[in-house]
């Protein structure tokens, strides 16, 4: 029996036995639906964090700054800034009504006019670490805006105000300059909504799309190989032996099956990007690159088929290796949140993530990402091929390796 006939039989068996294929698609889809539902419910249940502001300066500039930050749409979604006195702020902090206090010192405006950097003091509550960290994250983004305003004031002070005698520095002039730098900078916006302040360089929508695509492809292949392994019994292997079907031929036939199945699933994932509202047009280049990721997953599955013979052990190894590699490759959690040493290790899942991310963002593709992924896919397939050959030599049943000795 030829390898081509075996490959067609593998594909026909996959189609004629639709239960494993259906379950391999249905189970990941249900898992993704459950995770999405949990995420939506958690997003709806997140309360707005109330932050107390103690303004001891009480000048026009500080009031304008507080009003500017309070009216910022990005801050209003998660924070409510309330101006209170010191005693009331301490009471709210002690009772747990606020996770943080922003303290504006009395000399903030005067130091700002003199070109000095006076930091705002932020007190966070350790009993509410999640809310406190959220406040610190948003204020760190807001501090960039304040630092830019401070730099503008320093420039005006060094180039203009510094040379004017003290008695000629009109209060109105200084107030106008500071007000202009606070409000006109970035067109009265403290945050640039076109840039991602934290998390991932591509935006959360594209990250979610790529993460779901890679995870679904891998889990579909994992479940399908586990379910189909039960159909190939020992009796069936003996029947294949009777027709002189070697382990090498079986490995090539199964590799072809994984190649076709993963390529079709990758093509479906490419067109499924419409549901994430990240791409309005699916190009041929996008489909080919998604198929390239599917080929890598197919080579990974084929490699484990050739190296590990026991189905349950193979499934466990696929599960552990795949999930660890995806976690370390930034597929689920953006690499910005991972330890720095993780980025120094090359990861094929990280390359797959970067490949999908670039094509969805319409960015130029680098051969430094594509070439290693192709090479690793070939190496994985060849490693599985060597495993099949080694297993065939150990069994020494088919005349594939013994015919030359018998002829001598």
Automatic annotation (TrEMBL):
The chain crosses the membrane at residues 21-42, 204-227, 284-304, 316-338, 369-389. GO terms for cellular component: plasma membrane. One of its GO terms (molecular function) is ABC-type transporter activity. It comes from the Bacteria. Keywords: Cell membrane, Membrane, Transmembrane, Transmembrane helix. It is a multi-pass membrane protein. The keyword Ribonucleoprotein does not apply. Residues 21-386 form the ABC-2 type transporter transmembrane domain. Its main location: membrane. The keyword Membrane applies. InterPro entries: ABC-2_transporter_component, ABC2_TM. It is found in: Cell membrane. This is ABC-2 type transporter transmembrane domain-containing protein. It comes from Pontibacillus litoralis JSM 072002.
